[in-house]
Design goal:
Layout lengths: L3 E2 L6 E2 L2 H9 L2 H4 L17 E4 L9 E5 L50 E5 L3 E4 L74 E2 L7 E5 L20 E2 L13 H5 L5 H11 L8 H12 L14 H9 L13 E10 L12 E11 L2 H11 L11 E5 L11 E4 L6 H12 L9 E11 L2 E2 L7 E2 L1 E6 L4 H4 L8 E5 L7 H9 L5 H19 L2 H9 L1 E4 L5 E12 L2 H8 L25 H9 L6 H15 L8 H7 L10 H6 L14 H24 L3 H11 L23 H9 L1 H5 L5 H21 L4 E2 H25 L9 H17 L29 H5 L3 H8 L8 H15 L6 H26 L6 E2 L11 E2 L6 E4 H7 L9 H14 L18 E3 L3 E5 L2 E6 L5 E6 L3 E4 L2 E4 L1 H4 L3 E5 L13 E16 L8 E13 L13 E5 L9 E4 L4 E4 L2 E3 L5 E2 L13 E3 L2 E5 L2 E3 L5 H8 L86
Parallel strand pairs: 14-20
Antiparallel strand pairs: 1-2, 3-6, 4-5, 7-8, 8-12, 9-22, 10-11, 11-18, 12-13, 13-21, 14-17, 15-16, 17-18, 19-20, 23-27, 24-26, 25-32, 26-32, 27-28, 29-30, 31-32, 31-36, 32-33, 33-34, 33-35, 34-41, 37-41, 38-40, 39-40
Helix pairs in contact: 4-5, 15-16, 18-20, 22-23, 23-26
């Protein structure tokens, strides 16, 4: 091979890689080229290829199908591949560039559609052409500006700097915890925003991620001031312990009702056994937690009456100063309106119905108990703060952005706290005043698979607790408040006995509303209202005393329960519980008109609303009008109100509380089980209507999509088209994998639009579910919402109804079964309704057109405002309450199924007391609980990766190469391995895929025993966008043993990684931000440098990978609304198909899905029997033509591709923030009709529609219903509990 010269300094090199590395530092080349004609021309690619008869390996001729209308410059490995003079214009098929795509000056002829070309793969060698050569291409200004072939793409090594999460940094003038009040407050950091005006502020110092906090004043304590790195693990929070300054109790005092320590150990296992059965796992837990304790004595347990002990534990009170927070059973009485009299019937206007079975306990007593006894209260944030950061990659002049991730740094908490601090103190009270944010959740659940047993619990969370603990079941942050009873089965008997005929559906619905709000009037008792207004004094576990004010911040529930809380009609004319939008106006999602409508028609708990309800109730209860009469409809119908007195308004409206603002979004039910499920069902209906094998193809594709992570993407083993018993997490997985599964199943005119819609849905989903938001991400979410609304309107008008969608066979069969069941119930009735032929066994499938008139679609437009108000959506998600239901179902299994509500309440109290006694026993014995995490982590969190230190699988390098000499995957294994090791030994810059050292230099490497050692897994640690520490596990595609190697099909789906793209290649605009590779093997070896006398044996870890290159024929990203597409680099005599990398260079694992619609191919490797193929067939192996990079697989991955993550501060990992096309979402589109989709739209963002969080009090308003029971806030006895309330 002729030497290669640098075009400027004329230094000669043997390899193109050596030349590329030289040019990175060539001073002459850095200057402007004055006379390009005087230098020999170099091809615009790193190498052209011509036949070389000296190649010893045999010639392989392949028939390769050519793509349609492909440029010659995009064929096989690179533009400019030539086989011979007569075949130069019929170049082989290739489709991928290297990992990045700089500008290319290649402009070759186009190939005709289809066809094949003969390629001589065995006789290709690099050649430098001169300017006189036929077909020569003008030289670029530097090799970095050229468009290289995939196989020869220069991938310069980039090692990302890993920044570890850290806690808060105090200003230099501040003391350590506990903090003392200081005046004046310290100067804010230079990045402090000037737009925030506060009375006085106290700011922390920016940490490594540029985040600082702004407090109203210097806080008395910062809970996360001293946090260990392990507390930043995903799903992890350190357990707090009672401070050593407090005197710990003795062991006997800590045991409470237990007679001895052994009995406590056994009872703890017995009553905390969640399974309710004695399984092998429960038996092992008994051995680990009780019998293995050295202090356990079985004789101490003998003779103990556990039934009596159980009652004592349920009644246990840790402090004599605390009131009992035990459960009470109350009979709820409601008034049932009987309506107008008919004929000679004489009955009253209403009758009182007694509903037994309300299990409840005092909210205030639960608050006192938790704040006084739970050691985890030390982690609560009682001093809300504003959080700011400068986004990574921003200029120094860029203004800081607000960062929101939890209740205690959201607008609602900050405004309530500031209003409290500005209010006058109570006379003689000098205690610190703090706010406890209450979050309520309720929903009915079925307790058993068979039967009618159900429970309607009310749960309470504290927003001051970090969400990492609040969302975990093992942190026990959920507190049961009540079990709401339902209307008794004898309700119709009661009504018939009062007036002679049964109640209709509207009357039953009205009574349900009345019952629900009667229960809440019992829960919001005198003590609660007094604590809301005047606060309560609480002694905290750290010994401090504070005055705590209760504030209801959020109430999470699904839509049917929201309308109960808001006292509006279910799916009425104005179906939104937060505004008065009409059903036909829902389709305006994302438009300026929609945002203005939310502002101008926002629901408020004002005097007008209360007077309307009062007048409607007078019509019903005094004038004997029907609940659905025209009199009532005339008053309430225009706003879809119901004639029920709202308990929250009745108790708290005089204190400035507007209950409409506590109704928060429900992402799980509104999107994953709402809009996305509706779209998925309609797409499946369209495929059924199209016929053919599209449904079976869809199910097969979903089953072939590989899983990712521990449980990020679960393996799809079911038929997606049947949608049987799928949870919200299943619909989330389906959405994240939908693009490759649906591609090509629809006709060409609509397939592209469906792909765009799926991309926008995935992008919006990933943005909305972020656990940490900045001003930028919220702005991007608003843009994404506009784009989503535009896409959905186009889909409804132009795509969804182009195919006549009808019921699927499963839907039709289910409808027939339901109608048959209804017919069975009325079979013995004397007045049977006539059977509808359309609902019989031979009924045809019904039409199912797609519509946008759904409340769940309207709710999506509230999310940016809700995040600003309450924090990220996982803070207010109903997912926490749904998870709590699992405990209730286990407790039901432990009951005797009679009066189970009371038994479940008792079990809840026992579990809480056992946990309290356990914390006291640990304090008495000096035991510090281990930090608990839902994520098991191998190795140290501080390191970039972890590979086992053991050397169990030694492999002789010479024998390995000898046994694989015919496998193209190992053709360059030795040279690349030695070059990689030598560069790392000497600390020289090197690339990931091509040698840079001369062959004579390899003799300096001494490999211990000629062995490398294989490993089965590798863990990679990384800092996520929300400054958490997470870990990905990689398994190699090949399994190496002492006897050889074998292919692991299950491992290949978990073996893909991503690396930082080369930013020194001179490309100014790149479509692809990362490089991707499949890990074929994980190894380590022991080496040293022979040329250095003081060189010692050193362990070196390395990965052997197969590279994937980007597809240049597809535009990807937000502007194109397409996923990035990659494919394997062909070997074709070049060393760039495989390579070695240092594990420290890996960013994290990535998720690749086959592009099923593009098929498979076998010619990427010259030997079809190679072990490197993804799929192994009887007659050889094959790979998928292309793979999609699933960028929405998790939140961190989505932000890495989009850019702007707060935790991605390293320059090698940071990318410029990606946005939608300028026209996307900025055009006002017509709601109906095929035309007018891009009319002019006024620019500018719309203000937050939520309004202020501190509600003004109308002091002039008098009570509109003097007959109602009122609370004497000044003189009421806080020990009194209202058990029964009379209405009206």
């Amino acid at each position: 091979m002729a030497p290669i010269r640098c075009p400027e300094c004329h230094r000669e090199f043997e390899r193109w890689k050596s030349l590329s590395i030289h040019q990175a530092g060539c001073k002459i080349l850095a200057k402007k080229i004055s006379d390009s004609a005087s230098r020999p021309q170099v091809s615009s690619n790193y190498a052209d290829f011509v036949p070389d008869q000296s190649v010893s390996r045999g010639t392989h001729r392949l028939k390769i199908p050519l793509p349609k209308r492909r440029k010659l410059g995009a064929e096989l490995q690179a533009p400019g591949i030539r086989t011979s003079a007569e075949t130069e214009t019929n170049t082989a098929n290739s489709y991928r560039e290297g990992p990045v795509s700089p500008k290319s000056s290649v402009d070759g002829p186009y190939l005709s559609d289809g066809g094949t070309a003969d390629i001589d793969l065995g006789s290709l060698r690099p050649l430098v052409t001169s300017q006189e050569d036929e077909g020569a291409i003008e030289e670029p200004s530097s090799l970095a500006d050229a468009n290289p072939p995939r196989a020869c793409r220069i991938r310069l090594r980039i090692t990302p700097q890993d920044i570890l999460p850290a806690g808060v940094i105090l200003p230099a003038s501040a003391s350590a915890s506990p903090l003392e009040p200081c005046s004046p407050s310290p100067e804010p950091p230079p990045q402090q925003p000037t737009r925030v005006r506060m009375i006085r502020t106290w700011c922390t110092t920016p940490n490594a991620f540029g985040i600082w906090r702004e407090y109203y004043s210097q806080p008395s304590v910062i809970p996360d001031l001293d946090r260990s790195l392990s507390s930043f693990k995903t799903g992890n929070l350190a357990l707090a312990m009672t401070p050593l300054s407090l005197q710990p109790p003795t062991l006997q005092e800590a045991l409470g009702p237990f007679p001895n320590y052994s009995t406590y150990l056994h009872a703890r296992w017995l009553w905390q056994n969640d399974s309710g059965t004695i399984s092998a796992e429960a038996n092992q837990r008994l051995i680990d937690t009780a019998y293995s304790d050295k202090a356990f004595n079985p004789l101490d347990v003998v003779g103990v009456c556990f039934a009596s002990l159980r009652r004592k534990v349920a009644e246990f009170q840790p402090s004599p100063f605390l009131e009992s927070d035990g459960w009470k059973e109350t009979v709820v009485r409601i008034k049932v309106p009987l309506g107008p009299q008919k004929g000679d019937q004489i009955f009253g206007a209403s009758a009182k119905l007694s509903v037994p079975g309300l299990q409840h306990r005092s909210i205030v007593d639960v608050v006192k108990r938790v704040l006084s006894t739970d050691p985890n209260v030390l982690q609560y944030h009682f001093h809300p703060f504003r959080q700011y950061a400068v986004p990574p990659g921003s200029s120094q002049e860029a203004p800081p952005q607000r960062v929101v991730d939890d209740i205690y740094n959201s607008d609602v908490m900050i405004k309530e706290y500031e209003a409290l601090q500005r209010s006058p103190r109570a006379p003689g009270c000098n205690f610190e005043r703090v706010i406890l944010a209450l979050q309520f959740w309720s929903d009915a659940t079925q307790l058993a698979n068979f039967g009618s047993a159900k429970l309607w619990p009310v749960y309470m969370y504290f927003g001051n607790q970090p969400k990492w603990a609040r969302g975990r079941s093992d942190m026990h942050s959920c507190h049961d408040i009540a079990h709401i009873p339902s209307l008794p089965d004898s309700f119709q008997d009661f009504v018939c006995g009062q007036r002679g005929f049964p109640a209709n559906a509207r009357l039953k619905t009205h009574c349900r509303h009345e019952l629900f709000h009667k229960v809440w009037r019992i829960l919001l008792d005198k003590k609660f209202v007094k604590a809301y207004k005047h606060g309560i004094l609480v002694a905290f576990p750290d010994g401090s005393i504070r005055r705590v004010y209760l504030r209801i911040v959020t109430y999470s529930s699904d839509y049917p329960e929201k309308v109960l809380i808001a006292t509006i009609r279910n799916l009425g004319t104005c179906l939104c519980p937060r505004c008065l939008v009409k059903r036909h106006e829902i389709r305006k999602l994302g438009l300026i008109a929609d945002a203005k409508l939310r502002l101008t028609t926002r629901r408020t708990d004002d005097k007008k609303r209360r007077n309307l309800v009062r007048k409607a109730r007078k019509f019903i209860y005094k004038d004997r009008k029907g609940v659905a009469s025209t009199w009532v409809e005339a008053l309430l119908g225009s706003t879809s109100l119901v004639p029920t007195k709202n308990a929250f308004s009745y108790r708290l409206h005089k204190l400035g509380f507007d209950y409409f603002l506590m109704l928060c979004s429900d992402f799980m039910h509104e999107f994953e089980l709402g809009e996305w499920k509706a779209i998925l069902i309609h797409l499946i209906r369209m495929l059924h209507a199209l016929g053919g094998n599209s449904i079976s193809t869809l199910d097969e594709r979903f089953r072939k999509i590989p899983p990712f992570g521990r449980d990020t993407i679960r393996k799809i083993t079911y038929n997606v088209s049947e949608l049987k018993q799928l949870a919200a997490r299943d619909f989330e997985d389906i959405l994240q994998c939908a693009i490759p599964a649906f591609e090509g199943l629809f006709p060409d005119p609509i397939d592209a639009k469906i792909q765009e819609l799926l991309f926008v849905l995935g992008d919006w989903h990933s943005l909305a579910k972020l656990r940490l938001h900045t001003d930028s991400t919220l702005g991007e979410l608003e843009v994404a919402t506009r784009v989503l609304g535009q896409q959905l309107r186009y889909f409804a008008a132009q795509v969804a109804n182009t195919v006549r969608a009808m019921e699927t066979p499963n839907e039709r069969a289910a409808r027939i079964r339901r109608n048959a069941a209804k017919g069975t119930k009325t079979a013995n009735s004397s007045t049977q309704p006539p059977r509808n032929a359309e609902d019989g066994p031979t009924a045809a499938a019904k039409d199912k057109p797609y519509t946008l008139d759904r409340y769940k679609l309207h709710a999506l437009g509230e999310y940016p405002a809700q995040i600003r108000l309450f924090g990220s959506l996982d803070v207010i998600s109903t997912q926490m309450g749904e998870a709590r239901h699992r405990q209730k179902k286990r407790q039901y299994a432990r009951s005797n199924k009679r009066n189970f509500e009371k038994q479940i309440a008792t079990q809840t109290t026992i579990a809480e007391n056992i946990r309290l006694i356990e914390s006291r026993v640990n304090a008495a014995k000096g035991i510090i609980p281990d930090e608990q995490s839902e994520m098991a982590v191998d190795g140290s969190l501080e390191s970039r990766y972890w590979i086992s230190d053991e050397s169990r699988v030694p492999i002789s390098l010479s024998r390995l190469l000898q046994s694989t000499e015919k496998d193209p995957a190992f053709k360059h294994f030795r040279v690349q391995f030695l070059d990689h090791i030598l560069a790392r030994l000497r600390g020289c810059p090197y690339s990931w895929d091509e040698p840079v050292a001369e062959s004579a230099e390899y003799s300096a490497i001494e490999l211990e025993s000629d062995r490398i050692y294989a490993h089965g897994t590798a863990q990679f640690n990384y800092t996520t966008y929300d400054i958490r520490r997470s870990q990905d596990t990689i398994k190699p595609a090949l399994r190496f043993t002492g006897k050889g190697m074998m292919v692991e099909p299950d491992n290949s789906v978990r073996s893909t990684i991503m690396l930082s793209a080369d930013e020194t290649d001179g490309a100014t605009r790149r479509r692809h931000r990362f490089w991707y590779a499949r890990v074929m093997g994980i190894f380590h070896c022991r080496v040293r440098d022979r040329t250095k006398s003081d060189s010692e044996w050193a362990r070196m870890d390395f990965l052997w990978v197969r590279w994937l290159g980007a597809d240049p024929d597809v535009r990807c990203g937000l502007k194109a609304k397409r996923l990035e597409r990659v494919g394997y680099v062909p070997d074709c005599e070049g060393p760039g198909a495989f390579g070695f990398i240092d594990p420290v260079d890996v960013i994290r694992a990535c998720h690749l899905s086959p592009a099923f619609d593009h098929g498979t191919r076998r010619d990427l490797l010259s030997n079809t029997q190679s072990v490197a193929f993804d799929m192994k067939m009887d007659d050889g192996g094959e790979d998928y033509e292309l793979y999609y990079v699933l960028r929405f697989v998790d939140r961190d991955m989505a932000i890495r591709h989009r850019g702007g993550g707060i935790g991605h501060v390293d320059r090698a990992q940071h990318v410029e923030a990606e946005t939608y096309h300028e026209d996307d979402g900025e055009a006002e589109d017509v709601e109906d009709g095929p035309e007018g989709w891009h009319e002019g739209r006024e620019s500018g963002a719309v203000e937050d529609a939520t309004g202020p969080c501190v509600w003004p009090v109308d002091e002039s308003e008098t009570d509109e219903d003097p007959e109602d029971d009122q609370l004497d806030l000044e003189g009421s006895d806080t020990n009194d509990v209202v058990l029964e309330l009379d209405d009206d």
